[in-house]
Write a structure and sequence with these properties.
This protein is about 5% helix and about 40% strand. It contains two helices and 18 strands. The strands form five sheets. Strands 1, 2, 3 and 4 form a four-stranded antiparallel β-sheet that branches. The longest helix has 7 residues. The protein is globular. It starts with a strand and ends with a strand.
């Protein structure tokens, strides 16, 4: 199992990958130990190719190793004991859907292990994809999910097996986007942008909270506005509609509910949750 953390510190930053193993999926042991950075699998290094479009002069992964996917193949798609990770390398911070995106902030890179995942080394030709698609004013562009999909090979018309990845992304002022890339299995460093796999509207959710347990709200969705407030130690995030007279969705740590947008903040209103519980909401920002 991999996890993201900041070695030697409790604050967010220097995002790295630690790793742990388990024989029963209940009890886990950090590889190398739990103190300081003993469990480090991957960390910001800057090894490899310097990004030809660098943000503030930093190398491709100088500020973080964000999320990614592992596959039990080498870079030629062969099963020979090699493990390959495809991850987001970060060279510019801060990054957020709410601020302008700097091209060169994120790229897709590879790391490999030849000893069953105990030690890892970054691919010398990193990054393998440098920037979001041309013309995309993105909210973010990260966390590749990589997989072979023979069915998609058939749909596209590829005669050679390919791997594919999608990333979490979005277009500012428009909505979320899921960019799709492909590479021949024989060369998993040669990725081609195919287009958007999915183009939902802004504020789209995958299903109701009761069915999924998740709002599916965070793949770099553009949000028209975001209010944050505190009610009885619970955080409520209100995504208001453009019309003050309409009812808008309130996302809470418990049950979803709704609230009329009655005024420009600050204001106070009363919410009734799905369970019938009524709370007073103080919208402060």
């Amino acid at each position: 199992m991999f996890y993201q953390w900041h070695p030697n510190h409790i604050n967010w930053g220097n995002i790295s990958w630690g790793h742990a193993t388990s024989k029963d999926l209940i009890t886990w042991t950090d590889v190398g130990g739990w103190e300081n950075n003993q469990a480090l699998a991957l960390g910001p290094a800057g090894n490899g190719t310097v990004n030809p479009n660098p943000a503030n002069g930093l190398t491709y992964d100088g500020l973080g190793i964000f999320s990614g996917t592992a596959q039990p193949v080498n870079l030629h798609g062969e099963v020979d004991g090699t493990l390959s990770i495809f991850y987001t390398s970060v060279s510019f911070l801060p990054t957020s859907w709410s601020i302008p995106y700097h091209r060169g902030t994120e790229s897709v890179s590879i790391a490999q292990s030849h000893d069953g995942g105990v030690t890892w080394e970054q691919y010398a030709g990193n990054p393998v994809v440098f920037n979001p698609p041309e013309g995309w004013n993105v909210t973010g562009w990260r966390d590749p999910f990589v997989h072979a999909m023979p069915e998609l090979d058939t749909v596209i018309g590829y005669t050679e097996p390919h791997y594919y990845f999608v990333l979490g992304s979005g277009i500012k002022g428009v909505g979320p986007r899921m960019p799709l890339y492909s590479a021949p299995a024989s060369n998993l460093t040669d990725w081609t942008f195919l287009g958007a796999l999915w183009e939902p509207a802004d504020n789209t959710t995958f299903s109701t909270y009761e069915k999924s347990g998740s709002y599916g709200f965070n793949f770099e969705v553009y949000v028209k506005s975001l209010f944050k407030c505190r009610v009885d130690m619970l955080t409520y995030c209100v995504a208001p509609d453009s019309s003050p007279s309409r009812t808008v969705l309130v996302r809470t740590t418990t049950t979803p509910t709704s609230v009329p947008r009655v005024a420009t903040p600050p204001y106070t209103t009363t919410l009734t949750g799905l369970s019938g519980t009524r709370v007073t909401l103080h919208v402060v920002v």
